[in-house]
Each structure stands twice: as C-alpha cells, then as structure tokens.
Design brief:
Length: 88
C-alpha cells in the first residue's frame, strides 16, 4: 500500500486521498510486483488523462501566482487593464 501511495503522490498528491484508487493500485502491485514504477505511473497517467507536461505547467503557474501576491508592489511596466495601455 505504501508503494501505491508513493506512486500516486508522484503523479498528483490529491490522488492519495482516493482510497478506492489506492486499493485498486495496491491489488495490481500485489499481483504484478515486478512492473517498474515509471511504467505504472505512465499507465495511470494515460488512464486518468494526466500528462506530466500539464502537471509541470500547473505547478509553474501555481508557483508564479504565489509569488505575485497582493502584498507585492506593482511595477510600473505591469498592465492590469486595457486602460493601462494608454499610460505606456
């Protein structure tokens, strides 16, 4: 079960909360212990429609949005609305 949770965390940390999915994967891993982790992850990603590129992009967007909080002063060359085009 630990291997199943670890694999799910690598794909998407939210998947660890899906008990049914973890149990299904645990059963598969028990029946097929010699299957490589990367092969299992690829199968899960294909089944769930999750692509690594999308996951990386989501993390990048999330990271950038956290870095641009309301506390961060706006630089003069940043645009917030179409009206800002006139001020450039």
């Amino acid at each position: 079960m630990i291997r199943a949770e670890t694999l799910m965390k690598k794909i998407d940390s939210d998947l660890v909360e899906d008990d049914e999915l973890i149990l299904q994967l645990s059963g598969y891993l028990k029946d097929n212990p010699n299957v490589a982790d990367n092969e299992i992850m690829e199968m899960i990603e294909n089944e769930l429609g999750i692509k690594r590129e999308i996951k990386k992009l989501n993390k990048k967007v999330d990271y950038q949005s956290r870095g641009n909080s309301a506390d961060t002063p706006r630089q003069s060359n940043e645009l917030e609305s179409f009206d800002d085009f006139n001020s450039i």
